[in-house]
Amino acid sequence: MTKKSTEIIAIDGPAASGKSTLGKRLADELGYLYFDTGVMYRAVTWAALKQNVPVNDEQALVILIERMPIDVRRPSKDDGRSCDVLVAGQDATWEIHSPEVDEYVSVVAAHPKVRQALTAQQRRIGQAGRVVMVGRDIGTVVLPEAGLKVFLNASAEVRALRRYIELRNRGEQASLEQILEKIYLRDRLDSTRSVAPLRPAEDAVIINANEIDTEQVLERVRALLY
């Protein structure tokens, strides 16, 4: 089917770069599992905020992960979701995308022991093959053996506008200025953390999506596959 072994596809990039949309479209087209690893970090953040667990308390977060299993499944509802995210059996699919979670998820994801606990789960799923895995350290840390690695990038301004439109389309109030400020902060946290910082893998194909839409990005990835 493809030019090379691509049973495992890794797509990385900063917040709101379009990597999740690309990953879902590609997984549907190939008949692969779509797995955005960011939902795991979001789920932990959401659970911590809900249970008043300090997001700076690394050990408390690890304990939370151990006693609140996170499950990612194919979507059970036709409401725009790309998957179901269950936290201890509770559907938290939309709750984990709240502005409050947006604010703290990079803090949670920066903890080495949190990343270690979740990376082990991600590798187990990814190494089964026939998966498109999306995140910030898939090609560099989680699945360096991936047959195809894509790093999707765009300017902070373009990404903020996309996030703003997404929130408004869901009927949520949003401020473009505040979204841009949060994206700058997330980029700084993600790229400077000591463990698994955001960066392209050495053998990743880098695609700049500033002036091309999802279809054009998908066409470029298809050209790498077929």
Topology overview:
Elements: E1 8-12, H1 19-30, E2 33-36, H2 38-50, H3 58-67, E3 70-73, E4 84-87, E5 90-91, H4 99-109, H5 112-126, E6 131-135, H6 138-142, E7 148-153, H7 156-169, H8 176-192, E8 205-208, H9 214-225
Parallel strand pairs: 1-6, 1-7, 2-6, 7-8
Antiparallel strand pairs: 3-4, 4-5
Helix pairs in contact: 1-9, 2-4, 3-5, 4-8, 7-8
How would you describe the overall organization of this protein?
With 226 residues, the chain is of the alpha/beta class. The chain has a domain at 8-37 and 97-217: Rossmann fold, CATH 3.40.50. It has nine helices and eight strands. The protein has helices spanning 19-30, 38-50, 58-67, 99-109, 112-126, 138-142, 156-169, 176-192, 214-225, and strands at 8-12, 33-36, 70-73, 84-87, 90-91, 131-135, 148-153, 205-208. It has a five-stranded parallel sheet with strand order 2-6-1-7-8. The protein has a three-stranded antiparallel sheet with strand order 3-4-5, covered by helices on one side. A hairpin with a 2-residue loop joins strand 4 (84-87) and strand 5. It is globular, with a radius of gyration of 17 Å. The chain starts with 7 loop residues before the first strand and ends with a helix.
* 3D shape: globular
Superfamily (CATH H level) name of the domain at 8-37 and 97-217: P-loop containing nucleotide triphosphate hydrolases
Number of strands: 8
The chain-level structural class is alpha/beta
DSSP strand content:
15-25%
Question: In the CATH hierarchy, what is the class of the domain at 8-37 and 97-217?
Answer: Alpha Beta
* Count of separate DSSP helical elements: 9
If classified by CATH, what would the architecture of the domain at 8-37 and 97-217 be?
3-Layer(aba) Sandwich
Order of helices and strands: EHEHHEEEHHEHEHHEH
Low-confidence stretches: none
Largest sheet: 5 strands, parallel
Mean pLDDT: 91
Q: What percent of residues adopt helix (DSSP H or I)? A: 40-55%
